[in-house]
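ok trying this again, last paste got cut off
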Amino acid sequence: MSLLGGSLRVLTGVVTLSKAALVLIVLVSALVGGVVATLLSSGDMPLHVAEGRAVLMTDGSGTFVRDDENMSAFIPAGIPWEDPSGASHMGDRPECLSDEKNDAATQARVKAGYRTVSMPDGGGYTLVAWLKCL
């Protein structure tokens, strides 16, 4: 019990700081806070938008390839998409990528919104978040 009592006496002691030390602590705290806030993502992350070709497989997932072919991205099944008239859809296969004659992959011109997803190990991949049939 005496150890705990001794710790409490030390913790409740009065600490005196000079004005210069207090100003220095506030400035360093503001600097560290600013750096941390800059490095953390906040809110919505903007999508990159590009035109290209999309291919969906029978399970609904697929691949988007940008027109300049410098980038390809994974398309998860059931993403939001827009038809050529601008109507929004969710969950079903985009009309421009459906092939009623067979279940083989169908390729179409699309506009895609995508972003790079960072992994904890430092790697990453590019993921399509929505498609628009052109």
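PB: full thing came through this time. The helical segments are 2-11, 19-39.
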